[in-house]
Design goal:
transmembrane helix, Multidrug resistance efflux transporter family protein, membrane, EmrE, single chain, three-stranded antiparallel beta sheet, 13 helices, transmembrane
Length: 323
């Protein structure tokens, strides 16, 4: 139950991303700076935390051992996750992005066959391709139904082109985030804590963010002071607090694919937190009864996932297969 609670806390801080990104787009800020500045701002905070914990040496040693792995999966897990998410904010409101993002619940479950898992047999431990946990997938679909109901009325009022530009990049991000996270978690095999892993992935993704920043300078000009401050808030709340909490929760259940899926499903709470935030800060319209039905179904799905996570363990990822 503790990993679920930590996951819900992470969802609360992750929701800051959707609310503030919507606010920045409404005030004319570019998605390029919303994306790149977040990770650039994260670096000094994370360096201080890891140095204070005297864990910098093991991290650098781990990164030197497999630099290619760190560069690739950090780009996938952070670059292909957050850049498309911010790009979508230029075309869709935060509530729709937060709702579409919950596709990551199913995406994370569908990724299981991309990995090998260690299974105990009469001949000893053997590696087998992971299987999709059908019970967890079924409950994830329940949550997705709730999300669809929650967003149905709003989505029907948007032009098709705007809807696609706000949805397709988020679908890409929904697969990239759990894939990058699991691949790095698999590569580290428990040798690094959550702070080290977040810092390592942030450092390894910096080349991408710096290139994106250079592109931004030549295309949209430098960011405003207001956008820089809002991005700093996102970096602290979502990039550091939420990411570390989420990584800590996934590390706690890395030996059980079913519990891992349940922790990843806590991200569905971002929809509720983002909705509340936009109602308070951006004064969006009060949700319809159909939307509140969707909220109720999401809560039911979360309760079922929590119950499922306390049942018989299912072995999780120990060795990855190249996708």
């Amino acid at each position: 139950m503790r990993p679920i609670v930590i996951g819900i806390l992470a969802a609360f801080f992750f929701a800051v991303t959707f609310v503030l990104n919507a606010a920045m787009e409404a005030s004319g800020g570019s998605w390029i700076w919303s994306a790149s500045l977040r990770y650039i701002f994260m670096v000094p905070f994370l360096v201080i935390i890891v140095l204070a914990r005297k864990n910098m040496g093991p991290l650098l040693k781990e990164m030197k051992k497999n630099p290619g792995t760190w560069l690739l999966w950090s780009f996938v897990g952070f670059g292909l996750f957050y850049a498309p998410l911010c790009y979508a904010a230029a075309y869709s409101p935060g509530w729709l992005i937060a709702g579409t993002w919950q596709f990551t619940i199913i995406a994370g479950t569908l990724l299981a066959p991309l990995f090998l898992v260690k299974k105990q047999t009469s001949q000893g431990p053997v590696l087998q391709r992971g299987k999709i946990p059908l019970k967890g997938l079924g409950i994830s679909l329940i949550i997705l139904v709730g999300i669809v109901l929650m967003q149905l009325q709003h989505a029907s009022s948007l032009p098709t082109g705007v809807l696609l530009l706000g949805v397709l990049p988020v679908i890409l991000a929904a697969f990239a985030y759990p894939l990058g996270n699991r691949k790095m978690m698999d590569s580290c095999e428990g040798r690094l804590d959550a702070y080290q892993r977040v810092l390592g992935m942030t450092l390894a993704s910096l080349p991408f963010w710096l290139l994106l920043s250079i592109y931004g300078l030549f295309t949209v000009g430098p960011p405003s002071i207001e956008q820089s401050f809002q991005t700093l808030v996102v970096a602290v709340c979502s990039g550091i607090i939420a990411t570390v909490l989420f990584f800590k929760a996934t590390d706690m259940v890395r030996g059980d694919m079913q519990k891992l899926g349940s922790v990843e499903a806590t991200q569905s709470m971002e929809v509720i937190f983002a909705l509340a935030g936009e109602m308070l800060i951006l004064s969006i319209a009060f949700p319809s009864p159909l939307s509140w039905l969707g909220v109720f179904i999401i809560i039911i799905g979360m309760a079922l996932h929590s119950h499922l996570s306390n049942q018989k363990p299912v072995p999780a990822v120990h060795q990855s297969v190249k996708a």
